[in-house]
Design goal:
Elements lengths: L7 E4 L3 H10 L4 E7 L9 E6 L8 E4 L13 E4 L3 H14 L6 E4 L3 E7 L5 E7 L2 E2 L6 E2 L6 H12 L6 E2 H12 L2
Parallel strand pairs: 1-4, 5-8
Antiparallel strand pairs: 2-3, 3-4, 6-7, 6-10, 7-8, 9-11
Bound molecules: fe (ii) ion.
Length: 180
């Protein structure tokens, strides 16, 4: 048995504002929206969002949160294919303006940005780096850096870690212990 990431559901305060942000900025589409209790169609509405054909929803919203802490979640993370796509997301956020705190983080094995959604849930958008390095690792990077710059900085910062190696080598070792 393998448990593969499927989705998360967030309690939200403002369903429409959350849908707008996840659709307009992050690129999701609403796959379904409907009452939590079919017997009361005008009651609380849930919304389901996805941007991949393989999953009806990757994230869903349940608008039942009060005025307590903004979130009980550390972060949710989405993988993209390249550093350019990470930067593209940062550009989208800057152009959109709803989110102003975008933090680039270099984990050594992943190049990320972190930012809050409109209700304070932290989101990570990352691409894999070509390297493995023992986790956790946190370093900064600058959105103006080229991929070659980030790669060089990653080798300089993490290259002396005992477990630093090309990602394919790590995956070969990892599959030996975890399976495909
Ligand atoms: Fe993460």
């Amino acid at each position: 048995m393998k448990l593969r990431w499927s989705h998360c559901v967030l309690y939200v305060r403002d369903l429409d504002a959350m849908i707008d942000f996840y659709r307009d900025v992050l690129g999701f589409q609403v796959s379904d929206r409907g009452p939590m209790d079919p017997a009361t169609p005008d009651g609380i509405q849930l919304a389901f969002l996805s941007q991949v054909g393989s999953d009806h929803h990757q994230i869903a919203f349940a608008p039942v949160r009060g005025d307590g802490p903004s979130t009980t979640l550390d972060h949710i993370a989405f993988r993209v294919d390249s550093l350019d796509e990470v930067k593209e997301m940062a550009d989208r956020l800057a152009a959109d303006g709803r989110v102003t705190e975008v933090s680039p983080v270099n984990h050594g094995n992943a190049w990320s940005i972190y930012f809050p959604d409109p209700e304070g849930n932290r989101i990570e958008v990352f691409c894999d780096s070509p390297f493995h390095v023992r986790q956790p690792q946190l370093d900064g990077w600058d959105l103006s850096m080229s991929e070659a710059d980030v790669r060089r900085a990653t080798e300089e910062r993490f290259g002396s870690e005992p477990d630093f190696m090309p990602m394919p080598d790590f995956l070969t070792r990892h599959r030996r212990t975890h399976g495909d």
